[in-house]
């Protein structure tokens, strides 16, 4: 099909969905950009975009959802069981059944850092980046168990090239590209204005945003990463974020609990610092594992305690999960619900003018990883110590900042 035939087909599609404005600047593009734009428009699921726009104001009817506390295990209160679970997990790790996935699609903008968030230096004397700190942990544990843990890094289109270049400059920290370290892109969805019209960016192409960490399941499938894992003999996949410099990615006790309990998914938690801490907490929704956001939980539920004085809803999500590969395959098949965020987005209007907004003007849609938990019959929730496994770098200063992460990292490694 030549470019003109492609354009005619796209025009028909745009007319059907009242998005004809997307070709207004077409004639001003280079031939290469024209093809790129047409391919973008061919691939967009306009039915999905229309549906997301129509349903934005529909609130979930929580009165139909039964929310209950979820059971958890305290990793450091297992007593004689600790060694038992450790041995089970260690055996599986030695057999090469574990792969690690790090979600690293974000930029370090909030930290005042130009570049992928994983390249950020938290201020240690070594000046190691978040990527290198995670890599150190993975390699150390791999050496301990006589294996190389394959590492899969999910980037975004925005930071993919820069991320790969960073690893190339650091000789992949001892890993070998496409042998035991792999890079793949997360999915994207178009941004729309308040009238449901898809935006065009400054480059003349459709303005898109990453589809959230919930896109990791389908991204692993679509990019052929699950197939690579299966060829390697992987049975369990760790999934976590790039910004937690204390993440214990290779954890035989955690893995052993999941194997012993016969579940196909497990998550780590830390106990809430206070009943009103603004974090999502593990729970059961209609009998299935889930996470409830702090905005959805009543004061009464947030403060409720059990017979031991523990918070009933006190297990905070720290984005450290492990799943059987079969569970990822199933979760990749079913589309997740999308959550809406109202953002500022620079765009090109229908007359070709660049518009730089002063306030939010566009909607982006994100899927959340934990929305897939409802597909699991059950999962293990394992409480860990915040000071040993959770030092996120999210804010430039204050809570969860480079300063707090650095202090926790130094304190732990000086122990």
Keywords:
single chain, 415 residues, alpha/beta, Spore Coat Polysaccharide Biosynthesis Protein SpsA, Chain A, eight-stranded mixed β-sheet, three-stranded antiparallel β-sheet, 13 helices, 20% strand
Description of the molecule:
The structure is a single chain. With 415 residues, the protein is of the alpha/beta class. The chain has one domain (71-275, 309-413): Spore Coat Polysaccharide Biosynthesis Protein SpsA, Chain A (Alpha-Beta Complex). Helix content is 32%, strand content 20%. The protein is built from 13 helices and 18 strands. The chain has helices at residues 3-16, 31-43, 46-54, 81-94, 130-145, 160-169, 216-222, 225-232, 252-261, 299-303, 325-333, 386-389, 402-413, and strands at 67-68, 73-74, 98-103, 151-155, 181-185, 188-190, 192-193, 208-210, 236-241, 265-271, 281-285, 288-292, 315-324, 338-343, 347-348, 354-355, 362-367, 380-383. The strands form five sheets. It has an eight-stranded mixed beta sheet. Strands 1-11-12 form a three-stranded antiparallel beta sheet, with no helix packed on it. The protein has a three-stranded antiparallel beta sheet with strand order 7-17-14, with helices on one face. A hairpin with a 5-residue loop joins strand 15 and strand 16. Helix 1 packs across helix 2 (31-43) and helix 7 packs across helix 11 (325-333). The longest helix has 16 residues, at 130-145. It starts with a helix and ends with a helix. 39% of the residues are buried. The mean pLDDT is 93.
């Amino acid at each position: 099909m030549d470019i003109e035939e492609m354009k005619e087909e796209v025009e028909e599609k745009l007319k059907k969905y009242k998005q004809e404005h997307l070709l207004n600047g077409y004639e001003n593009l280079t031939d290469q950009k024209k093809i790129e734009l047409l391919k973008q428009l061919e691939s967009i699921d306009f039915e999905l975009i229309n549906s997301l726009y129509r349903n934005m104001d529909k609130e979930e009817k929580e009165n139909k959802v039964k929310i209950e506390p979820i059971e958890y295990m305290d990793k450091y209160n297992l007593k004689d069981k600790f060694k038992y679970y450790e041995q089970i997990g260690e055996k599986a790790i030695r057999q090469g059944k574990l792969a690690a996935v790090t979600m690293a699609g974000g930029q370090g903008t909030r930290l005042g850092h130009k570049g992928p968030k994983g390249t950020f230096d938290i201020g240690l004397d070594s000046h190691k980046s978040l990527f290198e700190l995670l890599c150190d942990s993975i390699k150390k544990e791999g050496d301990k168990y006589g294996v190389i843990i394959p590492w899969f890094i999910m980037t975004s289109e925005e930071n993919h090239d820069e991320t790969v270049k960073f690893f190339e400059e650091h000789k992949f920290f001892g890993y070998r590209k496409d042998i035991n370290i792999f890079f793949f892109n997360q999915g994207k969805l178009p941004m729309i204005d308040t009238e449901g019209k898809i935006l065009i960016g400054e480059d003349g192409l459709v303005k898109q945003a990453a589809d959230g960490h919930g896109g990791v399941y389908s991204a692993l499938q679509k990019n052929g990463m699950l197939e690579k894992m299966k060829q390697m003999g992987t049975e369990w996949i760790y999934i976590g974020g790039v910004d937690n410099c204390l993440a214990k990615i290779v954890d035989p006790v955690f893995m052993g609990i999941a194997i012993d309990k016969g579940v196909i998914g497990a998550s780590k938690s830390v106990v809430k610092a206070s009943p009103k801490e603004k974090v999502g907490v593990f729970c059961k929704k209609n009998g299935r594992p889930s996470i409830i956001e702090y905005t959805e939980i009543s004061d009464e539920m947030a403060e409720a305690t059990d017979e031991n004085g523990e918070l009933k809803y006190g297990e905070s999500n720290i984005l450290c999960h492990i799943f059987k590969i079969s569970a990822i395959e199933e979760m990749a098949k079913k589309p997740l619900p999308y959550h809406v965020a109202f953002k500022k987005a620079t765009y090109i209007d229908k007359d070709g003018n660049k518009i730089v907004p002063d306030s939010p003007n566009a909607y982006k849609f994100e899927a959340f990883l934990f929305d897939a938990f409802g597909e699991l019959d059950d999962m293990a929730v394992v409480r860990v110590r915040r000071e040993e496994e959770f030092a996120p770098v999210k804010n430039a200063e204050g809570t969860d900042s480079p300063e707090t992460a650095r202090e926790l990292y130094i304190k732990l490694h000086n122990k």
